[in-house]
Amino acid sequence: MIIKNFTEEHLPATAKLCRLNMQLDIMPDFLLREKTFGEPDYDSELTLLTFDENQPENPIGFIQGVIKQRPEEKIGFIKLLCVDSNFRRKGIASRLYEQAESKIKEAGVKKIRVYESYPNYFMPGVDPFYTEAVCFFERKGFKKFADTSNLSANLLELKYDTSKEEKSLEKEGIICRRASAEDKETILKWVEKNFTAWVHEVSESFKNNPVTLFICEVNGELKAFSAHEANNKGTGWFGPMGTDPSLRGKGIGGILLLKCLEDLKNMGYVKAIIPWVGPIPFYMHYANSKVERVFWRYEKILE
């Protein structure tokens, strides 16, 4: 067994490894690039591949770890992990994980979580469909502490017309519109102040043409936003979104949500993914969204 650091030349074969061995997920080359080299905290020492000595050109195992500074502490994450199904139960995942955990410990980190490495994350936890992964992480000492879910919305069935609601809001000086490149600095400052965790994703929405961010202003002052194509680009992901508490209950979030979903439909998507959801009833009400996948969140305290 040979372990190497992940490099540019390994990207196509590694993406193929993921595609062939993750039945519920897709991993085109461009998406693996976003998750690895597009990761703000990318660390080549924590991004590792395993090769069989008899097949040195094709990886049979892959792990990506990252360390992120959260408000109160640094946390390590196993962001991605995949092993060729033909080579499982041979200790490959263990070797990769133990090397990554060792380096995370060396950095003084006391806690590791699985997959939920926002803002640039692939999935918000372990889908229990991947039962091998559930068993693996539990054997390694991880404890389940919560769960979450991804919803999906059928974009071909929705009614997107919010003109009546918007006209009513305009009487109060409330305007909903697409953000423009000229808005970027103002919006990012406001998000940094009010929704710090989502600065990176909102910034990513400005890289798209047109900008994939809709905002709400009250007499010219920013009060709410809703984005899409800001993470896992090219897969129809919605979010993040946020509304100033003073404006909640006016239906603004629903308007911004529908504008984003209509945008996704016009881009050619038939389904939108609404990830890591808290308020399921909100999305059910406005987008008739359904729970599509459930994820278990795992954590390990390092001794």
What does this structure look like?
The protein has 303 residues and is α+β, with helices and mostly antiparallel strands. The protein has two domains: 154 residues, Gcn5-related N-acetyltransferase (GNAT) (Aminopeptidase, 3-Layer(aba) Sandwich); 113 residues, Aminopeptidase (3-Layer(aba) Sandwich). The chain is 30% helix and 30% strand. The protein contains nine helices and twelve strands. The strands form two sheets. An eight-stranded mixed β-sheet has the order 1-2-3-4-5-12-6-11, with helices on both faces. The protein is elongated and about 70 Å long.
List keywords for this structure.
12 strands, Aminopeptidase, 4-stranded antiparallel β-sheet, 9 helices, alpha+beta
